[in-house]
Amino acid sequence: MYKLFVSDFDGTLINSEEAIPLSTMVEIDRIRKLGVKFCIATGRILKSILDYNRDFPFLDYIIACDGAYVYDVVHHKVLSKKALGGSIIKKIKKLYHDKDIYFCTVQELNLCSKNTVYCEQNDKNITFDEFYQKNRNDIYKIEVHFKTQKERDSAYDEIHELGINANVVKMKEGKKDFLLEIVASDVNKAKGLERVCKAIHISLDEVVCVGDNEDDLPIFLSTGFSAAVANGSKKLKQVASIQTSSNETKGVEKVMKKLF
Questions:
Q1: Most exposed among 20, 115, 119, 166, judged by the fewest C-beta atoms under 10 Å?
Q2: Beta bridge partner(s), residue 166
Q3: Beta-strand relationship, 109-113 and 116-119
Protein backbone atom coordinates (compact mmCIF):
# COMPACT_ATOMS: atom_id res chain seq x y z
CA MET A 1 0.00 0.00 0.00
CA TYR A 2 1.38 3.39 -0.98
CA LYS A 3 1.35 5.94 1.84
CA LEU A 4 2.59 9.12 0.16
CA PHE A 5 1.59 10.66 -3.18
CA VAL A 6 4.06 13.18 -4.60
CA SER A 7 3.25 15.39 -7.57
CA ASP A 8 5.21 17.96 -9.49
CA PHE A 9 3.27 21.20 -9.97
CA ASP A 10 3.83 23.07 -13.26
CA GLY A 11 3.16 20.89 -16.28
CA THR A 12 1.83 18.11 -14.04
CA LEU A 13 -0.81 18.97 -11.43
CA ILE A 14 -1.94 22.32 -12.83
CA ASN A 15 -3.16 22.93 -16.37
CA SER A 16 -2.27 25.72 -18.81
CA GLU A 17 -4.61 28.07 -16.93
CA GLU A 18 -2.56 27.41 -13.77
CA ALA A 19 -5.57 25.76 -12.13
CA ILE A 20 -6.06 22.43 -10.40
CA PRO A 21 -9.27 20.82 -11.77
CA LEU A 22 -12.02 20.54 -9.18
CA SER A 23 -12.38 16.79 -9.78
CA THR A 24 -8.65 16.38 -9.06
CA MET A 25 -9.04 18.29 -5.80
CA VAL A 26 -11.90 15.97 -4.85
CA GLU A 27 -9.71 12.96 -5.68
CA ILE A 28 -6.86 14.29 -3.55
CA ASP A 29 -9.30 14.75 -0.68
CA ARG A 30 -10.50 11.17 -1.15
CA ILE A 31 -7.05 9.57 -0.93
CA ARG A 32 -6.11 11.74 2.04
CA LYS A 33 -9.17 10.42 3.86
CA LEU A 34 -7.80 6.93 3.15
CA GLY A 35 -4.65 7.93 5.05
CA VAL A 36 -2.44 8.77 2.05
CA LYS A 37 -0.38 11.94 2.52
CA PHE A 38 -0.19 14.39 -0.39
CA CYS A 39 2.98 16.28 -1.25
CA ILE A 40 4.00 18.80 -3.92
CA ALA A 41 7.62 18.66 -5.16
CA THR A 42 8.36 21.74 -7.22
CA GLY A 43 10.83 24.33 -8.38
CA ARG A 44 8.46 27.05 -7.18
CA ILE A 45 8.93 29.00 -3.97
CA LEU A 46 7.00 27.98 -0.86
CA LYS A 47 4.57 30.93 -0.83
CA SER A 48 3.45 30.25 -4.40
CA ILE A 49 2.23 26.75 -3.44
CA LEU A 50 0.76 27.78 -0.09
CA ASP A 51 -1.42 30.30 -1.93
CA TYR A 52 -3.14 27.39 -3.70
CA ASN A 53 -3.75 25.70 -0.34
CA ARG A 54 -5.49 28.71 1.19
CA ASP A 55 -9.12 28.24 0.10
CA PHE A 56 -9.26 24.45 -0.30
CA PRO A 57 -6.61 22.84 1.93
CA PHE A 58 -5.24 19.74 0.23
CA LEU A 59 -1.55 19.64 1.15
CA ASP A 60 0.42 17.76 3.77
CA TYR A 61 3.96 18.60 2.61
CA ILE A 62 5.75 20.88 0.16
CA ILE A 63 9.20 20.25 -1.29
CA ALA A 64 9.96 23.73 -2.66
CA CYS A 65 12.80 25.23 -4.68
CA ASP A 66 13.74 21.81 -6.11
CA GLY A 67 14.29 20.36 -2.65
CA ALA A 68 16.06 23.26 -0.96
CA TYR A 69 13.13 23.96 1.38
CA VAL A 70 10.90 21.22 2.83
CA TYR A 71 7.79 22.20 4.77
CA ASP A 72 5.16 20.39 6.84
CA VAL A 73 1.98 22.27 5.92
CA VAL A 74 -0.30 20.70 8.54
CA HIS A 75 2.01 21.41 11.48
CA HIS A 76 3.51 24.65 10.05
CA LYS A 77 7.00 23.26 10.49
CA VAL A 78 10.19 23.49 8.43
CA LEU A 79 11.63 19.99 7.99
CA SER A 80 14.82 21.04 6.24
CA LYS A 81 16.33 23.96 4.38
CA LYS A 82 19.58 24.57 2.51
CA ALA A 83 20.31 28.03 1.14
CA LEU A 84 22.86 28.81 -1.54
CA GLY A 85 26.14 30.23 -0.31
CA GLY A 86 27.04 33.87 -0.86
CA SER A 87 30.01 33.05 -3.06
CA ILE A 88 27.82 31.08 -5.51
CA ILE A 89 25.26 33.90 -5.64
CA LYS A 90 27.93 36.45 -6.50
CA LYS A 91 29.62 34.22 -9.08
CA ILE A 92 26.37 33.54 -10.95
CA LYS A 93 25.45 37.24 -10.85
CA LYS A 94 28.86 38.20 -12.26
CA LEU A 95 28.84 35.53 -14.98
CA TYR A 96 25.35 36.31 -16.29
CA HIS A 97 24.90 39.99 -15.43
CA ASP A 98 23.38 40.59 -18.87
CA LYS A 99 20.66 37.94 -18.39
CA ASP A 100 17.42 37.90 -16.43
CA ILE A 101 18.20 36.19 -13.14
CA TYR A 102 15.60 35.20 -10.54
CA PHE A 103 16.73 34.89 -6.93
CA CYS A 104 14.26 32.73 -5.00
CA THR A 105 13.59 33.18 -1.30
CA VAL A 106 10.79 31.43 0.60
CA GLN A 107 8.41 34.34 0.06
CA GLU A 108 9.56 36.02 -3.15
CA LEU A 109 10.67 35.43 -6.72
CA ASN A 110 13.01 38.39 -7.22
CA LEU A 111 13.96 39.40 -10.76
CA CYS A 112 17.42 40.87 -11.23
CA SER A 113 17.95 42.65 -14.53
CA LYS A 114 21.44 44.10 -14.91
CA ASN A 115 22.02 45.65 -11.46
CA THR A 116 18.42 46.20 -10.36
CA VAL A 117 16.31 43.76 -8.38
CA TYR A 118 12.52 43.95 -8.40
CA CYS A 119 11.15 42.85 -5.02
CA GLU A 120 7.67 41.47 -5.61
CA GLN A 121 6.54 41.63 -1.99
CA ASN A 122 7.33 45.33 -1.61
CA ASP A 123 6.62 46.23 -5.25
CA LYS A 124 9.82 48.23 -5.58
CA ASN A 125 13.25 48.17 -7.21
CA ILE A 126 16.50 48.12 -5.25
CA THR A 127 20.13 47.65 -6.23
CA PHE A 128 21.59 44.15 -6.27
CA ASP A 129 23.97 45.06 -3.44
CA GLU A 130 21.05 46.15 -1.25
CA PHE A 131 19.16 42.98 -2.06
CA TYR A 132 22.20 40.79 -1.42
CA GLN A 133 22.95 42.30 1.98
CA LYS A 134 19.38 41.72 3.10
CA ASN A 135 18.81 38.25 1.61
CA ARG A 136 22.18 36.53 1.15
CA ASN A 137 21.37 33.82 3.72
CA ASP A 138 17.85 33.21 2.45
CA ILE A 139 18.28 32.50 -1.27
CA TYR A 140 17.37 28.88 -1.97
CA LYS A 141 17.41 28.79 -5.76
CA ILE A 142 18.64 30.84 -8.72
CA GLU A 143 17.11 30.75 -12.19
CA VAL A 144 19.09 32.13 -15.14
CA HIS A 145 17.07 32.66 -18.33
CA PHE A 146 18.46 32.36 -21.86
CA LYS A 147 16.95 32.98 -25.29
CA THR A 148 18.35 29.87 -26.99
CA GLN A 149 19.03 26.28 -26.00
CA LYS A 150 22.61 26.54 -27.29
CA GLU A 151 23.31 29.53 -25.07
CA ARG A 152 21.79 27.76 -22.05
CA ASP A 153 23.78 24.58 -22.66
CA SER A 154 27.03 26.55 -23.02
CA ALA A 155 26.36 28.21 -19.68
CA TYR A 156 25.70 24.80 -18.10
CA ASP A 157 29.11 23.56 -19.32
CA GLU A 158 30.78 26.79 -18.18
CA ILE A 159 29.50 26.49 -14.62
CA HIS A 160 30.87 22.95 -14.36
CA GLU A 161 34.20 23.87 -15.96
CA LEU A 162 34.63 26.67 -13.41
CA GLY A 163 34.04 24.20 -10.58
CA ILE A 164 31.14 26.12 -9.03
CA ASN A 165 29.91 23.86 -6.23
CA ALA A 166 26.18 23.74 -7.03
CA ASN A 167 23.55 21.44 -8.48
CA VAL A 168 22.56 22.80 -11.91
CA VAL A 169 19.56 21.52 -13.91
CA LYS A 170 18.62 22.37 -17.49
CA MET A 171 14.99 23.41 -17.86
CA LYS A 172 12.63 24.81 -20.49
CA GLU A 173 9.77 27.21 -19.85
CA GLY A 174 7.32 27.74 -22.68
CA LYS A 175 8.55 27.65 -26.26
CA LYS A 176 11.26 30.31 -26.19
CA ASP A 177 12.66 30.46 -22.67
CA PHE A 178 15.56 28.21 -21.72
CA LEU A 179 16.87 28.29 -18.19
CA LEU A 180 19.24 26.87 -15.63
CA GLU A 181 18.00 26.15 -12.12
CA ILE A 182 20.77 26.35 -9.53
CA VAL A 183 20.55 25.07 -5.95
CA ALA A 184 23.09 23.96 -3.35
CA SER A 185 25.28 21.03 -4.40
CA ASP A 186 23.59 18.36 -2.28
CA VAL A 187 20.03 19.50 -2.99
CA ASN A 188 17.42 17.86 -5.23
CA LYS A 189 13.79 16.76 -4.99
CA ALA A 190 14.74 13.22 -3.93
CA LYS A 191 16.72 14.50 -0.93
CA GLY A 192 13.70 16.58 0.06
CA LEU A 193 11.48 13.54 -0.31
CA GLU A 194 13.77 11.52 1.96
CA ARG A 195 13.21 14.13 4.65
CA VAL A 196 9.42 13.84 4.30
CA CYS A 197 9.60 10.03 4.43
CA LYS A 198 11.69 10.22 7.59
CA ALA A 199 9.11 12.52 9.21
CA ILE A 200 6.25 10.07 8.58
CA HIS A 201 8.34 6.90 9.06
CA ILE A 202 7.87 5.31 5.64
CA SER A 203 10.24 3.99 2.99
CA LEU A 204 10.69 5.33 -0.54
CA ASP A 205 9.09 2.12 -1.80
CA GLU A 206 5.82 3.35 -0.29
CA VAL A 207 5.82 6.51 -2.41
CA VAL A 208 4.02 7.26 -5.69
CA CYS A 209 5.29 10.16 -7.79
CA VAL A 210 4.06 11.95 -10.90
CA GLY A 211 6.09 14.44 -12.92
CA ASP A 212 6.93 15.94 -16.29
CA ASN A 213 10.48 17.24 -16.42
CA GLU A 214 14.10 16.29 -15.82
CA ASP A 215 14.22 17.81 -12.35
CA ASP A 216 11.83 14.99 -11.37
CA LEU A 217 14.33 12.29 -12.36
CA PRO A 218 15.91 11.89 -8.88
CA ILE A 219 12.48 11.12 -7.41
CA PHE A 220 11.51 8.79 -10.27
CA LEU A 221 14.68 6.78 -9.76
CA SER A 222 14.15 6.32 -6.03
CA THR A 223 10.42 5.73 -5.43
CA GLY A 224 8.22 2.64 -5.56
CA PHE A 225 5.98 3.80 -8.40
CA SER A 226 6.28 6.64 -10.91
CA ALA A 227 4.08 8.06 -13.64
CA ALA A 228 5.14 10.49 -16.37
CA VAL A 229 2.47 12.76 -17.83
CA ALA A 230 2.01 12.59 -21.62
CA ASN A 231 3.45 16.09 -22.02
CA GLY A 232 6.56 15.07 -20.07
CA SER A 233 10.14 14.72 -21.27
CA LYS A 234 11.32 11.68 -23.19
CA LYS A 235 13.98 10.88 -20.59
CA LEU A 236 11.42 10.86 -17.77
CA LYS A 237 9.08 8.57 -19.71
CA GLN A 238 11.92 6.09 -20.18
CA VAL A 239 12.34 5.55 -16.44
CA ALA A 240 8.67 5.86 -15.35
CA SER A 241 6.62 2.87 -14.23
CA ILE A 242 3.75 4.04 -16.44
CA GLN A 243 2.71 6.96 -18.61
CA THR A 244 -0.49 8.82 -17.77
CA SER A 245 -2.38 11.46 -19.74
CA SER A 246 -1.27 15.09 -19.87
CA ASN A 247 -1.71 17.85 -17.32
CA GLU A 248 -4.50 19.20 -19.57
CA THR A 249 -6.46 15.95 -19.25
CA LYS A 250 -6.08 15.24 -15.52
CA GLY A 251 -3.13 12.87 -15.65
CA VAL A 252 -2.48 13.07 -11.89
CA GLU A 253 -6.11 12.34 -11.11
CA LYS A 254 -6.05 9.23 -13.31
CA VAL A 255 -3.04 7.84 -11.43
CA MET A 256 -4.88 8.28 -8.13
CA LYS A 257 -7.93 6.45 -9.44
CA LYS A 258 -5.74 3.66 -10.79
CA LEU A 259 -3.80 3.05 -7.58
CA PHE A 260 -6.31 3.90 -4.84
A1: 115
A2: 184
A3: antiparallel
CA neighbours within 13 Å on the CB side: how many for 93?
24
CA distances from 190 to 14, 130, 170, 216, 233 (A): 21, 34, 17, 8, 18
Closest by Cα among 44, 53, 56 to 76 = 53
The Cβ-side half-sphere exposure at 218, using a 13 Å CA radius, reads: 16
Dist. CA 105–CA 46, nearest whole Å: 8
pLDDT one-digit tens code per residue, 219-230? 999 999 999 999
- Alpha helices by DSSP H, 111-241: 128-135, 149-161, 189-200, 217-220, 234-239
Cα–Cα distance measured from residue 97 to residue 32, given in angstroms and rounded to the nearest whole number = 45
For the segment 175-186, what is each residue's pLDDT rounded down to a tens digit? Answer: 678 999 999 999
So what's the pLDDT on residue 91?
A: 93
Residues 6+ apart with CB under 8 A from 18: none
